[in-house]
Write a structure and sequence with these properties.
Length: about 450
Amino acid sequence: MSGEQFVHLHVHTEYSMLDGAARLPDLMAETARMGMPAIAMTDHGNVFGAYDFYKKAKAAGVKPIIGMEAYVAPGSRFERRRAAVGGDRSGGSMADVSPDNPGEMYTHMTLLATTTEGMHNLFRLSSLASLEGHYYKPRMDRELLERYAVGLVGTTGCAGGEVNRLLLQDRYPDALQAAADYRDIFGAENFFCEVMDHGADIERRYRDDLLRLAAELGLPLLATNDLHYTYERDAQAHEVLLCVQTGKTMADVNRFKFDGTGYYLKPPAEMRQVWRDFPAACDNTLLIAERCDVMFNEGANLMPRFPVPTGETEDSFLVQEVERGLLERFPGGVSDAHRSRTAYELGVITTMGFPGYFLVVADLVRHAKESGIRVGPGRGSAGGSVIAYALGITELDPVAHGLLFERFLNPERISMPDIDLDFDERRRGDMIRYATELYGEERVAQIITYGTI
């Protein structure tokens, strides 16, 4: 193990909205330039940037470590109220707030995926935190962490972590118990006491007790830098970003800003110098990086199977549905031009393996119409498909209007078709419910899109 190396395992990218200012291209280029073998992504309460991060890291020759700085509820994720940290959690109950035990809405915890299964567990935790535990922030709880701990490394996190919050409240026995509980959840080899040094007073106040706790429980130390931007010169730009987040101006002396300094991508030698008295804390960043090995199943077709009638295949059933649709569209007879175009499109769709996709989309549109849910006439390049027109997905005859099918599906460029559907937003939940009941939760997802400049 190189005594000069280091891996950053606490990193907030641009996907920590209005908080992280580390743009991925710069982050990867600088990580590679410094010769660091890997880097983690630990954005606040989300893994939205995981695939983007993964691709850019791979392209730069850097190992990607997928993680998250999670928000953890002080008790049950289902209870939407402030509660005391470190209370009795039996039965999912939360301790009452008192002057000696100020309440929290959540604490922080760093999570890192060591395996692909662990990455999938991280995704599940992120989703369930939003669906079941959202209270100001998407929060998970110990019950969820215990359920999905396989393949994950956990740490005590920053000053906002549960263990550190308890230490700051001079509640060492409670902090010791909390750390022991998390050690039992993740396993002794998968739970670390995370140490940071940005020259902030709050870090100094709990550090000695955290070191004592780590020694008492036999927990390894992990040195991190709470990275929020790539270059040291970006500190002021990051302050401006925080002003945007909080609605303040740089002229406001009471504006929110980070305590201490140095929240950038520090070189390995600088991190080694900061933690020269605890070299194992830096060595452990390399050990974790070596253990982490995740893989996205790129290019896999994850489409659900459409429930075709007994004796039919998706290919044969699509042909039947298209023929039925053509006769409904053209009751006076289907022209040779439409027949020829239909045969060509069916050949391309079948060869590319997309009959099931068209059946799924057509069924969603059919269900919406039969349920009185307003649905749009179809947008984008799908308007160039006579198959989409015959199935009722679109309402425009592409043959009559001279629209090209190849703009939608091109046999020379294999890629998934993309059909834009517009449903009445007031009934959107009904459509999601229908798809989930038909195909199962593992085959239905809601996605987010980011606008960039």
